[in-house]
């Protein structure tokens, strides 16, 4: 039988797993195999109990200690008292006419954030993406993004990031929806590389073969250009990388993305050229098109020169309008001409169709619920 355990588990070096309630219990949705082995050992159990616990939480996706019947009853009771296994609580779920679903989560300390489930329209492709948040709000201040207009309340923990995946999967797997998450993109609220440790930990849990077992090719971490952390990311993970670029010259990027004043395009492009990109991989370049700002043929030509020699695909995203930006979507003919100019230079440029606009779930629209707190 497991030993009794004080609720303060800091002595177990699990302080990095603190939960949002602030009651000292570690949030096990953010725990690695090594963390759980140490926990089992501290409880007087063999280390393999930690591996059993890890498999139950992440591979079998069990949400209640009582249902982990391969673990002794006494240990289950101790874990239920001393640890937290709660997934984020969705206070609101709204569905778009196109099948997109938006989730508003709220934490015990009153922080709200959103996730978006985007099922593939072409059913034969069976690709269903979950866009997760890494922060509540965002501090970067990009002028075209609703989320950037919201004060950043705090970083999300690894448990809260992984918990979004588990909570949404439990919802969409219901028979009436019959969905399944196949791809995960860190493109929700916040700048992932400003919450580096939690994002890396979450990505490691998502891609662990003994756990959630997503391919690194199906997990994408996006950044607006936190250059030092891009170098770190290349050393720590082999997930896909997306760059929110949105301009082909410093003058324009300084105006619409203040982060460019700290790390200009020269530094960002240098980081991409030096990145240890796995074989047969490409960077995803996100390019939000703003009417008469970054959508000219000259912009397209500059973009081709800027990215010359870097393996990329470019997602063209006409601005999704909202109430907190001065910018407007580009004219359709300018979008078409821009895409044709890129393709004429042998650049893979994909025009992305907005999803979930009717529920404010499209790119750059997340956060109305959080802003009301």
Briefly say what this structure is:
The protein has helices at 33-42, 48-59, 73-82, 158-172, 196-207, 227-236, 250-256, 265-274, 297-306, 332-344, 368-371, and strands spanning 89-95, 101-106, 112-119, 128-131, 135-136, 154-155, 183-186, 219-223, 240-244, 283-289, 312-318, 349-351. The chain is an alpha/beta fold and 373 residues long.
Characterization of the model:
- This protein has 373 residues and is an alpha/beta fold.
- It folds into two domains: 73 residues, Orthogonal Bundle (DNA polymerase, domain 1); 283 residues, Alpha-Beta Barrel (TIM Barrel), CATH 3.20.20.70.
- Helices cover 30% and strands 16% of the residues.
- The chain is built from eleven helices and twelve strands.
- Strands 1-2-3-4-7-8-9-10-11-12 form a ten-stranded mixed sheet. It has a two-stranded antiparallel ribbon with strand order 5-6.
- A hairpin with a 5-residue loop joins strand 2 and strand 3.
- Helix 9 packs parallel to helix 10.
- The longest helix has 15 residues.
- It is elongated.
- It starts with 32 loop residues before the first helix and ends with a helix.
- The relative contact order is 0.12.
- The N terminus and C terminus are likely disordered.
SSE topology:
Layout: H1 33-42, H2 48-59, H3 73-82, E1 89-95, E2 101-106, E3 112-119, E4 128-131, E5 135-136, E6 154-155, H4 158-172, E7 183-186, H5 196-207, E8 219-223, H6 227-236, E9 240-244, H7 250-256, H8 265-274, E10 283-289, H9 297-306, E11 312-318, H10 332-344, E12 349-351, H11 368-371
Parallel strand pairs: 4-7, 7-8, 8-9, 9-10, 10-11, 11-12
Antiparallel strand pairs: 1-2, 2-3, 3-4, 5-6
Helix pairs in contact: 1-2, 4-5, 6-8, 9-10
